[in-house]
Amino acid sequence: MIYEYRAYTCFPGRLPALLSRFENVTLGFWEKYGIRQAGFWTTEIGQSNQVLHYLLQWESMAEREQKWGAFQADPEWNAARAASETPEKIVQDIRNEFWKPAAFSSVQ
């Protein structure tokens, strides 16, 4: 199992728009493509409260490339994302990492 950590840093004040887009649009597309989320978090106390953190769960990098690629190429998704960023952009920066659980991790 591989976990993909993603962090979306929003422009000031735009986190609510990103949360709305995930809840009302993005998750539906993920369901269409079989993309499994392992959780979402916002920062309560920390460096920035304008970041959405989340984990995706993959069986392999091959599964990730196939499903994520299909999702990213979906014209309906691209239109919905563009519409959500009118008149202002939402995401300033995206960071992602791929994590493999340690042998002793309670999450495998």
TrEMBL record:
<dbReference type="InterPro" id="IPR012577">
    <property type="entry name" value="NIPSNAP"/>
</dbReference>
<protein>
    <submittedName>
        <fullName>NIPSNAP family protein</fullName>
    </submittedName>
</protein>
<dbReference type="InterPro" id="IPR011008">
    <property type="entry name" value="Dimeric_a/b-barrel"/>
</dbReference>
<feature type="domain" description="NIPSNAP">
    <location>
        <begin position="3"/>
        <end position="105"/>
    </location>
</feature>
<dbReference type="Pfam" id="PF07978">
    <property type="entry name" value="NIPSNAP"/>
</dbReference>
